[in-house]
Amino acid sequence: MEKLGINLQLLVTQIVNFGIMVGILTFLLYKPILKVLDERKKKIEDGLKFTEEAKKEKERLDELKRRILKEAKEEGQRIVKESIIEAKKRNEEILLEGKRNLGLEKKKMLSELRAEEQKMLDLVAKKASQLAVLITERILGETLDGKQQEKLIEESLKKINLS
Hints:
This protein is mainly α. It contains two helices and no strands.
């Protein structure tokens, strides 16, 4: 090989040196770089996976939000309808109560008016009887005693009540 200009010992030394250098570079640089690249690749994959999961979670939450809003809207409408029905019912109850109270007041007032009317009639009858006694006394020219006066008043009242 020397004829070709190759020194075998130098070639072997260079091959050994190259092997040692490849071993050192592999151990010190290549493996750590591969490890860093693998870790970075894994982080990127994890990030993509997390992003995909986050996207799915966001879609799920959006759907949940839409469903909750729809249910809340329906519940609100139901509550409003129930409130309107309850208000109408309460309004009718108040009106009926008012009519009942009005009827009771009317009956009470009529009863009071009748009582007052009866008092007035009794008073008028009494005054008419007293007037009749006075007229009778003047016509007869004599004064009636208490018994005669009461008898005359009772007879006058009976006549007035019967008519």
